């Protein structure tokens, strides 16, 4: 099984791996030699932006070159279905989310040489009621990836890393003009708190020390669950519950919408023991004019106020965001407003993306499109500013102490490294260890939680000396 795209897709792949294992399939390592030659390769595709779609197609073609049968699943398969199947005959089948519960049987048909009808896309927002409070009951009849829809199964971990993502919800009710995700991921639906806590305990028993909560919009969690599940404070309750699980040392929440981030949630993330004081804020821009064209809320002043609230509770909190530049109608004044926000906010990590049309979105038909050269120039300008500011933010941490989860051991090829509370997996830099007076880097093992002192920085990465390996609390027996 090959997985592309975001952490949500990784969770979906582990659910599918659990279903396939339960259905008699054996997962093999593609690098395991001739004895591990697969009969079929399942590619969990990404369909978010053009570059991700290209990566998905390239991966499908490379998989077909192995001689194995190839089955496309995931967001690109769900979004394009028969269109993808017609344009990519190398794929033996293109299956959608509704195929997930019986994927083991479908793969059997593929290997046996039978034709499996390709997925026919639908707008998945139409599959659940408009009213959020009616969705829990209705979702029992709708495939929601990552929610273990259908017969309850245990996800199968595809690696042994000490960090794992945990899906708390799926879908999105927002209507951002540039985004197609709600059309193929569907309306927002929360997982029940007891399911999330049970999966958190299971992950702890597998050796996981950090769980990263993922969804399309984590700040909406609980709005469809009712007051019996803490209502508007459902996410705070889940964070507290997960942090109390023996063996889980750090809980991180991602995908926060600024317009929905309430003061109580800021306080909970910034001050709850065991919860990383980390804020993955989806600002996207700060010009009010551009944000309205994006069908989003906020402006520079409201965003700076939110950043100030976060740092009032935790000055060392990590704050990251993505921004889109070159949106239709964006002016130099709008860019200047974004520059002002980034300069004053001093975020820890910033992803900069140039606008591109997405099929079926409102923005695709907006007037005043900018030419590619202008978009590229603005991406370069904002990227350079972001790099300068995030480097300065990292330098400000020199001399401080951090707690680092070790994810890579010391070797001839790579330095021992891990992440502190302000650094999320893969996107925010890392902490690289150097031997100190207290401990040598060779004393550290993957999965250790280490108190360390920041002695230098390299871009957004920190250079740290280990001071102490913190004791580990044994997880409860599964």
Automatic annotation (TrEMBL):
Limits of the Radical SAM core domain: 158-393
SMART domains: Elp3
Cofactor(s) of this protein: [4Fe-4S] cluster
Keywords noted in UniProt: 4Fe-4S, Cytoplasm, Iron, Iron-sulfur, Metal-binding, Ribonucleoprotein, Ribosomal protein, S-adenosyl-L-methionine, Transferase
Keyword Ribonucleoprotein attached: yes
Annotated TRAM domain residues: 395-468
Cell compartments where the protein resides: Cytoplasm
Top-level class of the enzyme under EC nomenclature: transferase
Task of the protein: Catalyzes the methylthiolation of an aspartic acid residue of ribosomal protein uS12.
Protein name, UniProt field: Ribosomal protein uS12 methylthiotransferase RimO
């Amino acid at each position: 099984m090959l997985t592309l795209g975001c952490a949500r897709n990784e969770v979906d792949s582990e659910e599918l791996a659990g279903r396939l294992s339960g259905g008699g399939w054996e997962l093999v390592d593609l690098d395991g030699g001739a004895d591990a030659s697969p009969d079929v390769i399942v590619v969990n595709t990404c369909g978010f932006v053009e570059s991700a779609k290209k990566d998905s197609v390239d991966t499908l073609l490379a998989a077909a070159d192995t001689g194995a049968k190839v089955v496309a699943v995931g967001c690109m398969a769900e979004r394009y279905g028969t269109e993808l199947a017609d344009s990519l005959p190398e794929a033996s089948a293109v299956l959608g989310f509704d195929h997930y519960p019986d994927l083991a049987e479908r793969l059997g048909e593929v290997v046996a040489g039978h034709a499996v009808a390709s997925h026919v896309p639908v707008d998945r927002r139409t599959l659940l009621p408009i009213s959020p409070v009616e969705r829990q009951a209705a979702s029992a009849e709708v495939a929601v990836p990552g929610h273990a829809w259908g017969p309850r199964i245990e996800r199968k971990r595809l690696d042994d890393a000490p960090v794992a993502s945990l899906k708390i919800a799926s879908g999105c009710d927002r209507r951002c003009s540039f985004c197609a995700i709600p059309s193929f991921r569907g309306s927002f639906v929360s997982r029940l708190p007891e399911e999330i806590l049970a999966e958190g305990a299971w992950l702890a028993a597998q050796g996981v020390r950090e769980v990263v909560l993922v969804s399309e919009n984590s700040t909406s969690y609980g709005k469809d669950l009712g007051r019996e599940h803490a209502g508007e404070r459902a996410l705070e309750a889940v964070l507290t519950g997960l942090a109390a699980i023996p063996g889980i040392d750090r809980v991180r929440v991602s995908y926060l919408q600024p317009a929905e981030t309430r003061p109580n949630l800021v306080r909970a993330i910034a001050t709850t023991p065991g919860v990383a004081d980390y804020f993955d804020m989806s600002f996207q821009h700060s010009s009010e004019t551009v944000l309205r064209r994006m069908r989003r809320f906020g402006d520079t002043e409201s965003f700076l106020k939110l950043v100030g609230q976060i740092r009032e509770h935790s000055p060392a909190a990590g704050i990251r965001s993505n921004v889109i530049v070159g949106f239709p109608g964006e002016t130099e004044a709008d860019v200047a407003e974004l520059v002002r926000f980034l300069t004053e906010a001093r975020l820890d990590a910033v992803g900069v993306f140039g606008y591109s049309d997405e099929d079926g979105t409102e923005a695709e038909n907006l007037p005043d499109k900018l030419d590619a050269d202008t978009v590229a120039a603005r991406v370069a300008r904002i990227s350079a500013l972001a790099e300068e500011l995030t480097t300065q933010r990292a330098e400000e941490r020199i001399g401080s102490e951090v707690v680092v989860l070790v994810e890579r051991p010391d070797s001839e090829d790579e330095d021992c490294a891990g992440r502190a509370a302000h650094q999320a997996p893969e996107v925010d830099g890392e902490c690289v260890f150097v031997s100190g007076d207290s401990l040598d880097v060779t004393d550290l093992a993957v999965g250790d939680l280490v108190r360390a002192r920041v002695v230098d920085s390299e871009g957004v990465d920190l250079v740290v000396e280990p001071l102490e390996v913190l004791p580990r609390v044994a997880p409860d027996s599964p």
